[in-house]
Design a protein that fits this description.
Layout (H helix, E strand, L loop, with lengths): L27 H11 L10 H4 L1 H4 L9 H9 L15 E6 L1 E6 L2 H4 E4 L2 E4 L8 H12 L18 H9 L36 E2 L5 E2 L17 H18 L13 H14 L1 H4 L12 E3 H4 L4 H5 L2 H9 L17 E3 L21 H4 L8 E3 L9 E2 L4 E2 L2 E2 L9 H4 L2 E3 L18 H11 L3
Antiparallel strand pairs: 1-2, 3-4, 5-6, 7-8, 9-12, 9-13, 10-11
Helix pairs in contact: 1-8, 9-16
Length: about 450
């Protein structure tokens, strides 16, 4: 996925292939789950010993007794609900001429809520920059990462990663000797959306600029310099199955008592005020797949502006777009896509940049915190059942004496890409209506 100081890793002939094909279970969904949880699609980025040496980077006096737990806590990783050795979700062993450690989709696309891990829940605790930086240091690489992978913990620069990696590829995916400028930005601050909403969508990503049917678009993370065009083609069938699995994932149900009478009232308010953009729910659900113009939604436009036409042109010329005849081209839209709200109780924080910690604050813009931090734990004690989202601590300023690692735990809405303005559609509700809508949203 990443070009992380590869000077320390020999670049072998990239016509070689890696990772055995998964054995075929009964259905495409089953095969997709098996491929996702068992197959490393990216060759080793670090030696396996780097994982065991992370504690030395922390300057701990000795290796902690509960080492996996401390790794998970430091980087915002979560226990795997499948066999993954001693590794948390998102990390796995891989073999490609050498045995080593690599990452997979679930470093970002598997999270935890109320202490339980879910594949397909965006990881809102992750500090991906610290994870990559510390693994590099444990590997003995002292060069800086090529760009910022996360500015605020729980968010990432996934769009920037895609732009960065494609810059090293020709349209046929052959490696370039130097990176092409495709308008790289690393201050877009993206929250990770839940996989379970994709099944309803015709278009995907925050601007709705890509076709949700595209399988190859979901393979972009494979762009390690050791991955050849042949590898992409060989694994495309596995990703068709992974796509089927992604679209089979269901949202977890709200586990606490719900005031059904209040929720019913909230459903009426929701259908009158919110359904035209976010759809209706239940057996006969509807979803309009609507792109809201940036001037109308009013939310931070960094992500909207940050993936440029240069990248779109390069993507549309590349192998990734040449799927199903004329292919699935990316397009420039006028704003952000209003997502389906299935399982929204579990997907805090809110807005595309994770700038709003609770649904209550999303529906009442004048109470949104300007500068805040939270535990980044996902237990019941960390969850705000009344406001629906994460409990936070508001602060007036970030202590200047703390490390950059600690600074990323603070969300500063005055910084580029992190504004919490916009989406003020709940401001006109009465307090009673707002509470009723919150109760209704718990049922989705």
């Amino acid at each position: 996925m990443l070009y992380l100081a590869f000077a320390a890793i020999p670049i072998f002939d990239n016509s070689a292939t890696f990772a055995a094909e998964p054995k075929a279970p009964d259905s495409s969904v089953d095969r997709g789950y098996k491929a996702l949880t068992e197959t490393p699609f990216v060759p080793p980025l670090w030696s396996y010993s780097s994982y065991d040496k992370l504690w030395k980077v922390w300057e701990a006096k000795e290796k902690p007794a509960n080492y996996q737990g401390e790794v998970q806590k430091r980087y915002g990783l979560h226990s795997a609900p499948f066999k993954n050795g001693e590794l948390p979700m998102g990390l796995r062993k891989a073999s490609f001429l050498i045995e080593g450690l690599t990452i997979d989709c679930m470093v970002c696309h598997a999270g935890s809520i109320l202490g339980k891990s879910y594949i397909g829940l965006g990881n809102s605790s992750l500090d991906v920059h610290a994870l990559f930086e510390d693994l590099n240091l444990a590997e003995g690489r002292k060069t800086k990462l090529p760009f910022t992978f996360s500015n605020a913990r729980g968010t990432n620069e996934a769009g920037g990663m895609g732009v960065y990696l494609l810059g090293y590829r020709e349209p046929d995916l052959k490696l370039r000797s130097s990176r092409k400028d495709l308008g790289l930005h690393d201050d877009l601050c993206e929250d990770v959306p839940a996989w379970w909403i994709l099944k309803k969508k015709q278009t995907m990503y925050y601007t709705g600029g890509a076709d949700a049917r595209s399988v190859r678009s979901k393979m972009q993370f494979m762009m390690s310099p050791l991955v050849s065009r042949a590898d992409f083609e060989r694994h495309e069938k596995a990703f068709q199955d992974i796509d089927a699995f992604i679209k089979s994932v269901e949202a977890p149900k709200y586990p606490f008592p719900i005031d059904q009478k209040l929720a019913d009232k909230g459903g009426l308010v929701f259908n009158e005020n919110c359904a035209k953009c976010h759809g209706t729910y239940g057996e006969k659900w509807t979803y309009p797949n609507k792109i809201i113009p940036i001037e109308q939604i009013g939310t931070d436009r960094k992500r909207f502006d940050g993936i440029t036409a240069k990248f779109g042109e390069a993507y549309n010329e590349s192998w990734f777009s040449k799927e199903k005849g004329d292919g699935y081209l990316v397009t420039q839209t006028k704003g952000y896509q209003a997502p389906p709200l299935d399982g929204i109780w579990a997907t805090a924080p809110y807005l595309h940049n994770g700038s709003v910690p609770t649904l209550y604050a999303l529906l009442k813009s004048d109470v949104r915190p300007k500068l805040f931090t939270r535990s980044f734990e996902t237990n019941e004690a960390d969850y705000d059942r009344d406001k629906v989202g994460w409990k936070i601590t508001e602060v007036k300023s970030i202590p200047m004496s703390i490390s950059v690692f600690e600074q990323r735990k603070y969300y500063d809405t005055s910084k580029p890409g992190r504004s919490n303005r916009g989406h003020t559609f709940g401001d006109d509700l009465t307090e009673g209506e707002r509470k009723a809508v919150l109760e209704y949203l718990k049922t989705l």
